[in-house]
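Before a computer can learn anything about folding, someone has to put a protein's shape into writing. The outcome of that step, for a single protein, is printed below:
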Amino acid sequence: MDQGPGRARGRALQRQARGVPVGPRRHHRGGDRAVTARIEAGWGERGFVEAGASLTAYQRAGRAGAPVAILLHGSPESADALAAIAKRLARRFDVIGLDTPGNGLSAPLTAPDPESADYARHLHAFMDVMRVERAALYGFHTGAGTAMSFALSFPERASALALDGYAVWTKQERADFLAHYLVTYAPAWDGSHLASIWARLEEQRLFFPWYDRRIAARMALPVPPLELRLRRLRDWLTAGDGYLAPYRAAIRRQGEIGPDRVEVPTLIGAMEKDPLAAHLGRLGAVSPAVTIERWSEREAALDRLAGFLFEHPGEPARGLPQPAQPPAFAERPEDLPWQPDGHGGFLLQIWQALRQDAVARAVDDADLAARLDPERLHAQLVAQVAAHTGLGQA
């Protein structure tokens, strides 16, 4: 696990390179403007609150005054990944999807090495701030584990759980994942770290786990649309090494604890091609509140998950939260290139433009060294990617 310079870098990057860019709209070459428009549409209104001493980003959509459904994404992603289920639930619910602490635009938890129970406690604090007493919960992968931990600790606050891929790791898998799965890539002067980041994300659709290049680990999923690949890249970049803590907590979590004793109505399922489908057979004896299913068609699975929560609604929110001020991305030069491609080369194009701008603007050697600092350049690149993928003005 790479936690050397990247870990300290990520903490600084999270403070500098998150939030919504401000300033005048910048023009860019429009070869991929249609992709940007689809990403920018999103699924809900963005907001920020302070929950459990952590700035927490969320999206919200649906029917005001209706029962609340809270959505928890997988790692390392953001609430943007929840659009498909959110749109279904919004027909009857007031839908809230939060960025897990350390992911998306949410700050990490203050605990030095949090466990799944800490993320459950954060969710409890988030619901208090959002003035939600009882909600239906949907969780995908990492989010499913958090939802289960929440229901075990605070059963009176959950009306139902719909868990879309639920992990039950073996001891060997847990040790292997903790040793190899969680990586970071420190910014390099030549931008070579960007190729590693792009390749890491691409590898995840080819193998699970991503570093296990054997036939037995092969998934070979079809190449997703470019807008989806850009959103996943954006989520990785905005999280920095903040994604490590929630992912580590999810890996350490003992998934067999929960389904055997949960009291609230719970649906646990997985797509047949989901690597976690094999984990359904590891659940053992489950409580009478649990239903286990396996799905072959994604749209039907989403309808089933939404329908289950419709059968077990929570309560409406009691009012609106006190909003918090969003952080700001790093300032970036105007007229940076934006020509996304399917191989990640556009990232190096942005990097080269940033270096060229830094050299042109420097007034002395000290200023030049500061402007060429790889961490500073990386923060500017994050701002450029975020601005063109739905997080502010491009």
Remarks:
- DSSP finds 13 helices and eight strands in the chain.
